[in-house]
Amino acid sequence: MIQVQQNIRDIEDLKLVETEVSDPARNEVQVNIKAASLNYLDLILVNGSFGPELPNPYVPLSDGAGVVTKVGEGVKEWNIGDKVYIHYVRDWINGPITPQTSKIRVGLQTQGILSEFVNVPQHGLVKAPENLSFEEASTLPIAGVTAWSGLFETGNLQAGQTVLTQGTGGVSIFALQFAKAAGAKVIATTSTKEKMDFLSNLGADEVINYKENPDWSKSVKELTDGIGVDITLDIAGDATIRKSLEAIKMNGIVGTVGFITGSKITIDVVEHLDLRMAKLMGISTGSKASSESMVQAIEVNEIKPKVDKIFGFSEVKSAFRYLESGSHIGKVVIKL
Question: For the chain, give me the number of helices (H) and strands (E)?
Fold first, then answer.
């Protein structure tokens, strides 16, 4: 089989390598990966700007979808031919996350999935939505589940409430789609006229250009009659967290899901949290049960993930460079 490997943590070191295919062990399932999607986490792991110890050589990417090709002894949940995607926090099956269930993240504590075949514990897979292609299903494990978990499990979003989405990355677009399907109002922020039009066409009720309006949290308050939004998912970290907290209502929720501008944040606890009873929560994707609930909602509401561009298996460096450029709207996918 062919897989992508790197020995040096640099995009230019990514290469296609031929390796042997091993049979799945007891309670394991073999999946023929058909498509994989990129996340910001993958970029900082591959380019060496994020620090954890990784296997060497390292196979990148956490998110992928494909077809079950073999099942090991003891497997009862899956059959050959099933269409599946990889569950990211592998041992988090249901309920609140615990130190035990949070230990293994695919592509972080294990090798990644950018390979023609991978062997996965049977509990580490989710049935892919019937209405999605492999390319679309590959975008779900991190971005889709993070948005779903943040809105509905952490945020308890209800019809009629207001959500603030930030930018046009995978989590933010999924949050917009899920919120609108749930009957919520959505205010979105972005940086260009093209992206504003995209978000409006996708269903955003209001769109704010944060480059033209750097005090966008004030605009959010004005659009909500001075009250603020119920929930926002903060994708950038240091540069946006204070405005995210300013944009929510009393008792509102900010879920932190990214740190593209820095992970060390400074806030005034009294001003932003105590006086307004605000909640600042870390969102670490979700459980397998949460993922399955999301799949049901995607099928019922005919939700289609927004795939910006699809690259071939041999174009993996170009795919990472495109993600690095920040010019994408939606998800970047590699088709195997």
Answer: 10, 15
C-alpha span between 84 and 93 (Å, rounded): 16
For residue 123, how far is the Cα from the chain centroid?
A: 20
**CA geometry: angle at 156 spanning 229 and 182, to 5°?**
80
Cite the beta strand spans of the chain per DSSP E.
Answer: 2-5, 15-18, 28-37, 63-71, 83-86, 117-121, 125-127, 162-166, 185-190, 206-209, 229-234, 248-256, 279-282, 307-312, 331-335
Q: At what angle do helices 193-202 and 170-181 cross, to 10 degrees?
A: 30
Residue 90 pLDDT class (50, 70, 90 cuts): very high
* DSSP-assigned letter for residue 313: G
Amino acid identity of residue 43, one-letter, is: L
* pTM of the predicted model over 0.85: yes
Give the span between the Cα atoms of 171 and 183, in whole angstroms.
Answer: 18
- Dihedral sign of CA atoms 151, 154, 158, 164 in order: negative
CA dihedral sign of residues 289, 290, 295, 299: positive
